[in-house]
């Protein structure tokens, strides 16, 4: 999910790629943000960038 966010895809585009509903994408993103301890997709991408070095 995080890699798809890194491609700057919207919820609808992610849902189409993964063959899941937009609601499911939002749920996964919300869970991901919580696990990373961030409050936005942008913050999650910054965390990914810093982890990559």
Structural features:
53 residues, mainly alpha, 0% strand
Tell me the total number of β-strands: 0
Terminal-residue CA separation: 20 Å
Unreliable stretches, pLDDT < 50, 5 or more residues?
none
The biggest beta sheet is recorded as: none
CATH topology: Arc Repressor Mutant, subunit A
Give a short synopsis of this structure.
This protein has 53 residues and is mostly helical. The chain has helices spanning 2-6, 11-18, 22-36, 41-52.
Describe, in plain words, how this protein is organized in 3D.
- It contains four helices and no strands.
- The chain is mostly helical.
- The protein has a single domain (2-52), classed as Winged helix-like DNA-binding domain superfamily/Winged helix DNA-binding domain (Arc Repressor Mutant, subunit A), CATH 1.10.10.10.
- The longest helix is centred in the middle third of the chain and has 15 residues, at 22-36.
- The chain is 75% helix and 0% strand.
- It is globular.
- It has helices spanning 2-6, 11-18, 22-36, 41-52.
Break the fold down into its secondary structure elements and pairings.
Blueprint lengths: L1 H5 L4 H8 L3 H15 L4 H12 L1
